[in-house]
Design brief:
There is one protein chain. This protein is 74% helix and 0% strand. It is mainly alpha-helical and 300 residues long. It has 2 domains: 13-166, Tetracycline Repressor, domain 2 (Orthogonal Bundle); 169-299. α1 (14-20) packs across α3 (46-70), α5 runs antiparallel to α6 (117-138) and α10 runs antiparallel to α13. It is flat, with a radius of gyration of 19 Å. It starts with 13 loop residues before the first helix and ends with a helix. It binds protoporphyrin IX containing FE and farnesyl diphosphate. Protoporphyrin IX containing FE (HEM) binds next to α2, α7, α10 and α15.
Length: 300
């Protein structure tokens, strides 16, 4: 259990509450949720659609706040996270806890009454998974933390789909699998160049525990099933050529960058440019592939 990381010296303002929700990561979470909703074979009224996306954003924000409530001690030890409201002492942990629990309850109640049970249950699963399975249980215990805990971030397209259709079928499961398999290359590419931060904080991320070589190989190994999942919707008849060709081009680029990272040997002064490029590209990849899904459905 984490302890209070710093003396609280400044009153928190709305920017600190916004920072608790991890807004930058949330943009992609919300985008994949929106694309899952718009790619579904059912129309949802725009106001209900907006409400469902709002619920995903609030639920993800709640999960981010509860993550920061629990790991203020870890965040205080890492350069990348030291300026967050809790480790910087601009907010007390209880406020973050109340904010996170309140937001989670609000998003779930709104989803249930405005949308449907299926979307509510999957949203609840993703909040619970991120907070309890990833943050509290696995993150400090095993380098497989992000493989298993990563499921939390893979649910949003399924939530969007369920909001539009009321259920879940093969296609949203494929979209879940795509993000699930994307998460290890996304995160481990970053972990390779912020390895020292994690080592200092005592977090057992793969490069710290198993070494760089293993991490590089694992990045390559997860990329192969990931691109198969990205390719599958076209031959399975769920999408057309716009999606199929876009996914193939983006997956080809992803594979090339992942292989480059997988086979590289680096010295202590290496600038880690290929790893940084792969991390940045991983984000663009999901934006473009999910965007293509919607363009294919609506404009093809
Ligand atoms: C367990 C799974 C994941 C882990 C451990 C992880 C970890 C990280 C970390 C540490 C960063 C750097 C953020 C920062 O500098 O504050 C990051 C950035 C990012 N992640 Fe992930 N991530 C995961 C899953 C996801 C998922 C599922 C998405 C969305 C679908 C996502 C989207 C992003 C985006 C958009 C950024 C860039 C944020 C920025 O520009 O600052 N991540 N991720
Ligand atoms: C719809 C819904 C509830 C989604 C929630 C899932 C979600 C926000 C997934 C993204 C995962 C994420 C931000 C991991 C960051 O890892 P970390 O927490 O180890 O990163 P840190 O070191 O920056 O805190």
């Amino acid at each position: 259990m984490s302890t209070s990381a710093a003396t609280v010296s400044l009153p928190a303002d709305w920017r600190d509450f916004l920072a608790l929700t991890k807004p930058r990561v949330m943009t992609l979470v919300v985008f994949t949720g929106l694309c899952g909703m718009l790619a579904a074979p059912a129309h949802i009224h725009p106001i209900l659609g907006f409400t469902a996306i709002l619920c995903i954003a609030l639920g993800a924000g709640a999960a981010g706040a509860l993550n920061q409530w629990y790991e203020a001690d870890l965040d205080a030890k890492m350069k990348r996270t030291q300026k967050r409201p809790l480790p910087a002492g601009r907010m007390d942990r209880q406020s973050a806890l109340h904010f996170g629990v309140g937001l989670a309850c609000f998003s779930l109640v709104l989803m249930y009454f405005a949308i449907n049970l299926a979307a509510t249950l999957i949203l609840a699963a993703s909040i619970l998974f991120y907070v309890f399975v990833y943050t509290i249980w696995l993150k400090r215990r095993t380098p497989q933390n992000i493989v298993i805990g990563g499921a939390a971030g893979a649910f949003p397209p399924m939530i969007g789909w369920a909001a539009a259709t009321g259920d879940v079928s093969t296609m949203p499961v494929l979209l879940f699998a795509l993000i699930f398999l994307w998460t290890p290359p996304h995160f481990w590419a970053l972990a390779l160049f912020v390895k020292t931060d994690y080592a200092n904080a005592g977090v057992p991320m793969l490069p710290v525990v198993a070494g760089e070589r293993t991490t590089r190989i694992q990045i390559g190994l997860y990329t192969i099933p990931m691109i198969l999942c990205a390719a599958a919707p076209w031959p399975l008849g769920f999408t057309g050529a716009i999606y199929g060709i876009t996914a193939a081009v983006m997956s080809g680029l992803f594979l090339a960058m992942a292989v480059q990272v997988a086979i590289r040997r680096t010295g202590p002064d290496d600038d880690m440019a290929p790893e940084k490029r792969l991390f940045k590209f991983s984000i663009l990849y999901l934006f473009v592939v999910f965007g293509a899904l919607v363009i294919d459905r609506w404009f093809a």
